């Protein structure tokens, strides 16, 4: 990895759900602050997700195909253990609301106590602050076109 600017590499361990434009906002803002961003896709065989891991990885690579400072990794287990394994400098977490902020701040303190890894909390851009993947799923359920909520239209990946 290139560590020429700040020498910092951060881990974004959000699901990077194709429905959540705010996730892209957090990664893009992280790229302004740090040299490299690792997007970690958690693999939990017991948890059902809307999209399989392979699809999410393909999606992320498509979104960031021209950005060499973004790397995609899969992991199982605890995020903090994976972050230590990779040797990243900090975790990055996205915050949409003040309530999210309170929760994420508490989790950041716990993560730091348990693992020594710092957490950087970044608010999503105001445009995406109220948008969550569950809201978009609801819109889709009711037959609404959600392409304007997405960083990359789903159809551009589904029709590959």
Would you mind describing this structure in some detail?
This protein starts with 8 loop residues before the first strand and ends with a helix. Helix 2 (53-63) links the parallel strand 2 (36-42) and strand 3. The chain is globular, with a radius of gyration of 16 Å. By secondary structure, it is of the alpha/beta class. The protein has a five-stranded parallel sheet, sandwiched between helices. The protein has six helices and five strands, in the order βαβαβαβαβαα. The protein has helices spanning 21-33, 53-63, 79-86, 98-115, 133-141, 154-158, and strands at residues 9-12, 36-42, 70-75, 90-95, 118-123. The chain has a single domain (9-158), classed as HUPs (Rossmann fold).
How would you summarize the topology of this molecule?
Elements: E1 9-12, H1 21-33, E2 36-42, H2 53-63, E3 70-75, H3 79-86, E4 90-95, H4 98-115, E5 118-123, H5 133-141, H6 154-158
Parallel strand pairs: 1-2, 1-4, 2-3, 4-5
Which strand-content bin applies to the residues?
A: 15-25%
Into how many domains do the coordinates divide?
Answer: 1
Shape: globular
Find the count of extended strands (DSSP E, 2+ residues). Answer: 5
Keywords:
disordered C terminus, 5-stranded parallel beta sheet, alpha/beta, 160 residues, Rossmann fold, globular, 6 helices, 18% strand, 5 strands
